[in-house]
DNA sequence: GCTTGACACCTAGTGACGCGAGGCCTAGCA
DNA sequence: TGCTAGGCCTCGCGTCACTAGGTGTCAAGC
């Protein structure tokens, strides 16, 4: 998977995963890896800053939980976050359609 | 359209557009705008550096043409560029599938 | 007891790259 | 004369994924 291909789409993924219910950072990583069949194997240094950014933007909120000595920061979508997720999904659709329609008209490299 | 969403996918688009036959930088911009129904309205400062980078990488080559006092730099895919295009297409497919499968399992924000 | 690895959090710095802003030139039209 | 469209270019900025490094708990194996 291309190094840069995620740029601008990570927020969508994190918001989507969060929309299924409260989840902590490490869990986000696991869930993305599972659901993408291993295509998205994100570093912690990738995911945590995203969560912080989304929270600063008011799209997520968190509460701490403690289970068997393990503290977890459980994130949940705010109403603003849900709205943003809807926008992001629409943007994703538009983006995919745009790329596909460019690819469609230039089907495959002509062997000269 | 998201500001960053193109990152990592621009090469694919430019290679695809170039695969249809020799084309100059300005033409790449126009063709992408047309074929994406206006979704991709790229700045020259976006496209020219990409063309230069792709050429440095051996994926494109150019020749100058002169028509009615207008000089154009016509780019063409090299064999390596064609191979790269095939790879990039596959990568794009994988990327879309991965994102979609994340989105599929988290259908829409639950109105809690 | 000690080490290793999974679980769980964090941040500073780097590098890639799309894009805005600017500059240069010709042709055509008002 | 000035403006717009066509054509080329580069520099600098900001964003953001990622690397590398740090802290701590707990369970399993030696």
Relevant terms:
homodimer, 112 residues, alpha+beta, three-stranded antiparallel beta sheet, 3 strands, 16% strand, disordered C terminus, DNA-binding
Could you walk me through the main structural features you see in this protein, from its secondary elements to its overall organization?
- Two copies of one chain form a homodimer.
- The first copy, chain A, is of the alpha+beta class and 112 residues long.
- Chain A has one domain (3-105): Winged helix-like DNA-binding domain superfamily/Winged helix DNA-binding domain (Arc Repressor Mutant, subunit A, Orthogonal Bundle).
- Helix content of chain A is 53%, strand content 16%.
- Chain A is built from four helices and three strands.
- The first copy, chain A, has helices at 10-18, 25-35, 44-56, 79-104; strands at residues 23-24, 60-67, 70-77.
- In chain A, strands 1-3-2 form a three-stranded antiparallel sheet.
- In chain A, helix 1 (10-18) packs across helix 4.
- The longest helix of chain A has 26 residues, at 79-104.
- The first copy, chain A, is globular, with a radius of gyration of 17 Å.
- The structure holds a DNA duplex (30 and 30 nucleotides).
Topology of this protein?
The structure is a homodimer.
Chain A lengths: L9 H9 L4 E2 H11 L8 H13 L3 E8 L2 E8 L1 H26 L8
Chain A binds a DNA duplex (30 and 30 nucleotides) through helix 3 and strand 3.
Q: Which fold name corresponds to the CATH topology of chain A?
A: Arc Repressor Mutant, subunit A
Shape, principal axes of CA atoms of chain A: globular
Query: What is the first-to-last residue Cα distance of chain A?
Result: 29 Å
Strand order of the largest sheet of chain A: 1-3-2
Q: What is the CATH architecture descriptor of chain A?
A: Orthogonal Bundle
CATH class of chain A: Mainly Alpha
Number of helices of chain A: 4
* Uncertain residue ranges of chain A: 108-112
User: How many domains of chain A?
Assistant: 1
CATH superfamily of chain A: Winged helix-like DNA-binding domain superfamily/Winged helix DNA-binding domain
Estimated helix fraction of chain A: 40-55%
Quaternary state reads homodimer
Radius of gyration of chain A: 17 Å
How do the helices and strands follow one another from N- to C-terminus of chain A?
HEHHEEH
